[in-house]
């Protein structure tokens, strides 16, 4: 049975999906549900027994925690009860010698992990390898699974009077429509739809050709040049596809909005207890206060208005390093202030150097380029840059795919000192000669491990070899992430001066300790029931639910809406407008549940996200660390619950135990058992998606560690863990 047979289960209800913000608009029946299509009796009859069967078997395998679970399920908001699920004895990582867990097959996971990346076609191409990687039961492409899926889509079409797809092509068209579930169905919902598949104008559905078939890959409509530009929205002159016309609304200009921030949490001061290790030669000493950084008055005022009174560890170490003009690779836990750690010293430098106010020019020559892997993240970085540069002559600009290219150009020509960009859009703009690179002094790769991996790496290499780009000796290159696999560190050397410094705050790749992690053993077919149960307990607290595929994100969002849980979704096949709307609805609390693919796993800083649920575990442990890092930010506490399906997640058991243990979390006994039984000496597949790097790969540095009080022991820090095969 394929893992997507759940699609068939959801089938009868599929047509009733109206995301919450649409539901408000369209509901007019007594119960607000008049768009619900009654499931056909045959579907009901066909699916129900099967579902019951799966539910039973799911619960059977999860019996260990099931009882406890049921006992606690009605305690609204009492999520500490969730900690009880599967709570086992603490696991000391005994017997997991480092060498035993290496040899993971890295290449496939690498690609697999990037299932919902955007703005880069190279990455998407990688997915074609995925099919070969997973075993049959886990493959999205398995025959019966696909048939089940098809059935569900037929239902969806029937529901909206759009005819049933009768062949693969129809199905693919229908699949495109799911990408635009929220957007493309609107006409049908409002009664104007005619069932013409061409009106399905999902971001990738129409522009990029839709799903290839394997869960995430998007097939481009054009040839070799179609790559990044099409992924960006098909706007480039050398690509096909409709023009993207979306112009994002300008961010609010009033000072209050610019400086709006959330409070640091009760554990903010505990950051001081984390061990920091700086490696490389002649590192400048850390600073302890903002004053020590000697920033100009405007910058200091902005820092105060942003509510920053105390430096986080990564800021204490990175700011003086960057101010000293050194290249830097910095790794610090999620939510600990890496953005300000690079923005503040860059701005300070610019101010000190007397940066000239840029003015309208057809070719802009920014001093700083910041790249990040997702559109929402670069936008967030831009807002931070705008905040800290408020009242100065420094102008920050953001450009990203899924928006009108002309809009990006208009933003740039008005003046640009700091350019925040996704790689695809950046390369497009450089190609159009709107950006010259000669003046670049700072190149920042946020989420640097992602920016250098197989997906974005080639794009980044192109960037640094663009005509005019100063050599690494002539520019300052800064890399930040919460995870930094060793192989990526090695790749990074090409971008950095040989004397770069490496700052590791805590365990490189470790999870934020402010996130209470719970792992539940839940079989594929029990997941939805479990999810609803947990969400009902959680109530209105903001929750991100991560799934592995875009298609599944739509299904789960659909399902939750049917369950009357206000939900929206974000993934790479939604139009940019829809993505921003979804994020807005989630931020505002209008939809307290956001179903997301890994496109939302990194960097997003959303106030008050109290829970992360991994409905599906990601392929790699690094991605897990980033996902759960959407909660527990800036000293606040958060909770993460992960559904571990032994059918598909066993390869994660060992690295998961390591992450849990390092973050001083309970490790369920059943997970230990799986980890032990999954280990087969000499079997290289056992650690796929394996563990993270722990140190600066150069290892020939004169390391300098600072243990403030009760942080990690230095032996932990230097422990050469099984990090050769991070994914
Ligand atoms: N010194 C500080 N004082 C108060 N708040 C801070 C400070 N530094 C950062 N913050 C706030 O903490 C939050 C998290 O910061 P940021 O998004 O930069 O984290 P990050 O380390 O980049 O996380 P991720 O790894 O998820 O990208 C932001 O809201 C930011 O404004």
UniProtKB/TrEMBL annotation:
The EC number on file is 3.6.4.13
Taxonomy, superkingdom = Eukaryota
Its GO biological process terms?
Answer: meiotic cell cycle; regulatory ncRNA-mediated gene silencing
Which Pfam family would be a valid example here? Helicase_C
Which intervals carry biased composition (Basic and acidic residues)?
45-55
Q: Where is this motif: Q motif?
A: 288-316
Q: Which SMART domains match?
A: DEXDc, HELICc
UniProt feature, compositional bias: Gly residues: 150-162
Listed under catalytic activity are: ATP + H2O = ADP + phosphate + H(+)
Region listing for Disordered, in residue ranges: 28-88, 103-243, 706-727
Q: Where is the composition biased (Polar residues)?
A: 28-43, 706-719
Q: Which Gene3D superfamilies match?
A: P-loop containing nucleotide triphosphate hydrolases (3.40.50.300)
For the Helicase ATP-binding domain, which residue ranges apply?
Answer: 319-502
Keywords, ordered alphabetically: ATP-binding, Helicase, Hydrolase, Meiosis, Nucleotide-binding, RNA-mediated gene silencing
| Domain Helicase C-terminal: from-to ranges | 530-675
Q: Does the keyword ATP-binding apply?
A: yes
Cross-referenced InterPro entries: DEAD/DEAH_box_helicase_dom, Helicase_ATP-bd, Helicase_C-like, P-loop_NTPase, RNA-helicase_DEAD-box_CS, RNA_helicase_DEAD_Q_motif
Q: Which GO terms describe its molecular function?
A: ATP binding; hydrolase activity; nucleic acid binding; RNA helicase activity
Q: What top-tier enzyme class does this entry carry?
A: hydrolase
**Domain DEAD-box RNA helicase Q, residue spans:** 288-316
Family designation: Belongs to the DEAD box helicase family. DDX4/VASA subfamily.
Query: Subunit notes for this chain?
Result: Found in a mRNP complex, at least composed of TDRD1, TDRD6, TDRD7 and DDX4. Interacts with RANBP9. Interacts with RANBP10. Interacts with PIWIL2 and MAEL. Interacts with BMAL1 and CLOCK. Interacts with Tex19.1 and, probably, Tex19.2. Interacts with RBM46.
Q: Which PANTHER family match?
A: ATP-DEPENDENT RNA HELICASE DBP3 (PTHR47958)
Protein name listed in UniProt? RNA helicase
Q: Whose protein is this, by species?
A: Callithrix jacchus
Record gene name: DDX4
């Amino acid at each position: 049975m394929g893992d997507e047979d759940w699609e068939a289960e959801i089938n009868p209800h599929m047509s009733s999906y109206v995301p919450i913000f649409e539901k408000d608009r369209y509901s007019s029946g007594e119960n607000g549900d008049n768009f619900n299509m009654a499931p056909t009796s045959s579907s009901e009859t066909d699916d129900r027994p099967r579902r019951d069967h799966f539910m039973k078997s799911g619960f059977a395998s999860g019996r260990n925690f099931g009882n406890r679970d049921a006992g606690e399920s009605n305690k609204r908001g009492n999520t500490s009860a969730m900690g009880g699920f599967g709570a086992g004895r603490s696991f000391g990582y005994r017997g997991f010698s480092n060498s035993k867990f290496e040899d993971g097959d890295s290449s496939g996971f690498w690609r697999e992990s990037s299932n919902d990346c955007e703005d880069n076609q190279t990455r998407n191409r990688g997915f074609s390898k995925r099919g070969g990687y997973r075993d049959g039961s886990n493959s999205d492409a398995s025959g019966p699974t696909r048939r089940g899926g098809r059935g569900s889509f037929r239902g969806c079409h029937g529901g909206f009077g759009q005819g049933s797809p009768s062949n693969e092509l129809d199905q693919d068209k229908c699949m495109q429509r799911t990408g635009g579930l929220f957007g493309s169905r609107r006409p049908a919902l409002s009664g104007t739809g005619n069932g013409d598949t061409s009106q399905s104008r999902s971001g990738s559905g129409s522009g990029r050709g839709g799903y290839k078939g394997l869960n995430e890959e998007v097939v481009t409509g054009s040839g070799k040049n179609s790559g990044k530009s099409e992924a960006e929205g098909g706007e480039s002159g050398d690509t096909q596809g409709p023009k993207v016309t979306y112009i994002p609304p300008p961010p609010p200009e009033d000072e209050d909005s610019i400086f709006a921030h959330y409070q640091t949490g009760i554990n903010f001061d505990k950051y001081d207890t984390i061990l920091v290790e700086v490696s490389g030669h002649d590192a400048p000493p850390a600073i302890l206060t903002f004053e020590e950084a000697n920033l100009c008055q405007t910058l200091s005022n902005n820092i105060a208005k942003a509510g920053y009174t105390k430096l986080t560890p990564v800021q204490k170490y990175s700011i003086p390093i960057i101010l000293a003009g050194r290249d830097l690779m910095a790794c610090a836990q999620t939510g600990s202030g890496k953005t300000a750690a690079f923005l503040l010293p860059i701005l300070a430098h610019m101010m000190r150097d007397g940066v000239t106010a840029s003015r309208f020019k057809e070719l802009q020559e920014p001093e700083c380029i910041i790249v990040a892997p997702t559109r929402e993240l670069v936008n967030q970085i831009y807002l931070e840059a705008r905040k800290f540069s408020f009242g100065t002559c420094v102008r920050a600009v953001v450009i990203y795919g899924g928006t009108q290219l002309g809009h990006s150009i208009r933003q740039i020509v008005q003046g640009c000192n700091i350019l925040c960009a996704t790689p695809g859009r950046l390369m497009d703009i450089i190609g159009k000669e709107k950006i010259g690179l000669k003046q670049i002094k700072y190149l920042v790769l946020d989420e640097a491990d992602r920016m250098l991996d197989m997906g974005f790496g080639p794009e980044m290499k192109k960037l640094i070899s663009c005509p005019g780009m100063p050599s690494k000796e002539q520019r300052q290159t800064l890399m930040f992430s919460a995870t930094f696999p060793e192989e990526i560190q090695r790749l990074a050397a090409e971008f950095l001066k040989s004397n770069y410094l490496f700052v590791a705050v805590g365990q490189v790749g470790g999870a934020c300790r402010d996130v209470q992690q719970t792992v539940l053993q839940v079989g594929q077919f029990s997941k939805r029931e479990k999810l609803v149960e947990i969400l009902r307990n959680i109530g209105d607290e903001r929750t991100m639910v991560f799934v592995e595929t875009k298609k599944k994100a739509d299904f789960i969002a659909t399902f939750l809406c049917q369950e009357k849980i206000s939900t929206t979704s974000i993934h790479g096949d939604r139009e940019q407008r829809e993505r921003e709307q979804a994020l807005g609805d989630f931020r505002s609390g209008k939809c307290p549940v956001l179903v997301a693919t890994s496109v939302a796993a990194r960097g997003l800083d959303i106030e008050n996200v109290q829970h992360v649920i991994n409905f599906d575990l990601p392929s790699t442990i690094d991605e897990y660390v980033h996902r759960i890092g959407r909660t527990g930010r800036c000293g606040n506490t958060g909770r993460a619950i992960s559904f571990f399906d032994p059918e598909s997640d066993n390869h994660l058991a060992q690295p998961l135990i390591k992450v849990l243990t390092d973050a001083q979390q309970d490790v369920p006994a059943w997970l230990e058992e799986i980890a032990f039984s999954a280990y087969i000496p000499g079997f290289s597949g056992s650690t796929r998606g394996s563990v993270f790097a722990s140190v600066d790969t150069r290892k020939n540095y004169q390391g300098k560690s600072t243990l403030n009080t009760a942080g990690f022991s230095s032996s932990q820090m230097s422990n050469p863990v099984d990090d050769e095969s991070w994914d």
